[in-house]
Amino acid sequence: MSVPGAFLALAVVVVPMLVPLSGPPGRAVAALGVPASQEAISTNTLLVSELPAANGGQFFTVLRLPPVRVAAGQPMYLQARLAARSNVPRGPLMEMRTICPGAGGSPTTDRNHDGQAYGVESETGRWLMVPPATGTFTCELRGRAATSLDPAVAKLILDPRLTVLSMVAANPGATQWTDPVNRCVGTVPDPTVPQCVVARPIANVLQKTVPLPSSATYANVGADVQLSREYGAFPGGNAMVRLSLRATPVDVNEVACAPRRETMATQTITSNLHHVKVNLTLTKVGVNQSGTCGRSLKVGVVVASLVGNPVTIHNSAYSNAFLLPA
């Protein structure tokens, strides 16, 4: 069972922005990697209380922030969390996306709810919105439920305390990136899935060398990695992978010049929890150590197959990484 208190403790440790889980919309919050003068806006005022899986599981607007005037090119850091209970023994799929009309939308976040007996379960997605032109933007969290088991009955019952959308201005130099293609890790090839035809025990994803402003003293780095387990007997059974987010200060030749920072997580993917997003964060990574060292960070995620069926690491539609200088 996912316990709300336990989720709060995890969020405070690994999320670059401390988001209020209750209280009035628009409450200011502290943030890392954003100007001290900027205050976040946030809301947990639900516009709908349930997400039905009927009729193919259509998207509903769950939360909406107040309109904000943003200058062209100003990066805005958004964090969304969808938390819900299920009314059926297994599933449905929880899917969400943050949208800012006129400035695009985030990658999609998916996870399967384990079912009614597991209580409140949640998923988190993070995104940098960078408007192409100065304007007023009203950002919202959209969510849906989907299942093939009992779509006429299944639904997600949203938790009004833990479902949150927030936004705050990030410092100049904040950036995000994605991978254009799906990757796969597994010890046995799966001829039925294009990216898994060749067995690869390790995949390097979301790799980028990021230049930093000379004024930055550290950076916060995050990666939201969407995973799914493939079907069949290749060799079969639950899959387990290890994910490592790494950030290394480098010189002008992209050679390491200071110690690497790394955080790791292990994720098991089952036939029930078939889709899941892993949120990885490194905070206060030292940069600009000297005139020749740390003016860029080499960032990437290493995904290793430990056991079970192949696992797909999804592309830009679902996974992203970002860096917030401070």
Description:
The chain is mainly beta and 326 residues long. The protein has 2 domains: 4-169, Jelly Rolls; 175-325, Jelly Rolls. It has 1 helix and 22 strands. It has one helix at residues 4-14; strands spanning 41-43, 50-52, 60-64, 68-70, 76-86, 93-99, 109-112, 121-129, 135-137, 140-146, 155-158, 164-169, 175-177, 183-185, 202-211, 218-229, 239-250, 261-269, 275-286, 296-307, 311-313, 320-325. Strands 1, 2, 5, 8, 11 and 12 form a 6-stranded antiparallel β-sheet that branches. Strands 13, 14, 16, 19, 21 and 22 form a 6-stranded antiparallel β-sheet that branches. Strands 3-10-6-7 form a 4-stranded antiparallel β-sheet, with no helix packed on it. The longest helix has 11 residues, at 4-14. The protein starts with a helix and ends with a strand. Residues 1-37 have low confidence and may be disordered.
CATH homology group of the largest domain: icosahedral virus
Order of helices and strands: HEEEEEEEEEEEEEEEEEEEEEE
Mean pLDDT: 89
Shape: flat
Proportion of strand residues:
over 45%
- Major sheet: 6 strands, antiparallel
In CATH, the topology of the largest domain is named: Jelly Rolls
| Low-pLDDT residue intervals, each spanning 5 or more residues | 1-37
Number of structural units classed as domains: 2
**How does CATH name the architecture of the largest domain?**
Sandwich
CATH class of the largest domain: Mainly Beta
How many DSSP E strands? Answer: 22
* Integer-rounded radius of gyration: 20 Å
Number of helices: 1
From the N-terminal CA to the C-terminal CA, the straight-line distance is 36 Å
